[in-house]
Amino acid sequence: MTKDSAVPVFGTEQVRRARYAVAAVFAVHGAVTGSFATRVPWIQDHASVSAGQLGLALAFPAIGASLAMPLAGRVSHRFGARTALRGLLALWTLALILPALAPNLLALCAALFAFGASAGMSDVAMNALGVEVENRLDKSIMSGLHGMWSVGALIGSAGGTVAAHIGADARLHHTLAALVLTGLGLAACQGVLDLRSEPDEEPPPRFTLPPKSALVIGAVGFCAVFAEGASMDWSAVYLRDVMGSSAGLAAASTTAFALMMAIARIAGDRVVDRFGAVRTVRVGGVLATAGGLLVVMAPGAALALCGFGMLGLGVAVVVPLAFAAAGRSGNNPSRAIAGVATITYTSGLIAPSAIGSLAEATSLLTSFGLVTVLAFGLVLGAGVLRAGDRTVAEGGVTQPAPTRSPAGGRPKA
Known about the structure:
Blueprint: H1 12-38, H2 40-47, H3 51-57, H4 60-68, H5 71-79, H6 81-95, H7 98-101, H8 105-137, H9 142-165, H10 170-189, H11 212-241, H12 247-275, H13 277-297, H14 301-315, H15 318-326, H16 333-361, H17 364-381, E1 391-394, E2 397-400
Antiparallel strand pairs: 1-2
């Protein structure tokens, strides 16, 4: 196609196939996370690290992801979106092998750094392509894509649970899982849209600060991910220590939260299509705030459990919509998406430790008071996701929002 062409023409069927292909990529990405998480105890024993050392090592995936994510746009610019995704996803699936091979703390930190770096870059690439497909379909799909990530994580964790139950060596388990997931990922990447930057377009910088638009959108994502991380890691402890519940009911709080998030993400696209990104997040913020208040004020464990479920429902679609908004917020979607991803990864990294530190200084009840305040931040900040709505009004006529390539310039078929 010529340089003067505005937007590449993809057939309707081709775009629909691309939607399913990207969904499969999200599921593969999630399956790697699920496979790893279930074997952390084995990895800890193999590397002979204490609980404190393991906590230090588990910070390195987020550090690696945060440093590497800005590079994803440059890789897409040089190789094209499809080739870039294929390579980055393969790096991520094969990186699953590394942590189980680590014989000590230093090697484990290095392995987890590489593990996180490949995760972050492939995360940016697949979200950028997800936004592109959503633009061409003119309907919300990002929530469902993130729902597929959750499905993949559940499948990966189920396989890991079986492997752990039979006492399988994690080195063998993760090698086999990595090879299978690499094959599935490469097959899925064949169906994504092949978007390329203009030959004369300047490549994005290797490292750069996120654009201002990504910072304000990322702030909303920060609130949601902080509430998510705090609830996932501390809800069971809260019910046990604050509410005096049984161990079984305490464990059910984590399950309830995760289940509500998965259901909301899978069903979220229809809600967004009907009400728009801003209204959906604002209502979700109200629901999450009410859930947080119920957790803090509940007289019994059952009501607190319902509060955690409401928190899960309320924050579930925020991150997918933040990525969608970032992909439409400027001339360089990958840079904006990388900025939002960096902020949300950072939130997920600091939330569990921040809740613990605040609980030690005050109480766990006060910690979830902070979660409630941040949940209310979704209500106040939802307007910055207006860029995530798929249509813009021009002269009283509603038209599809403009599309751009993941690398930042005009896309090419």
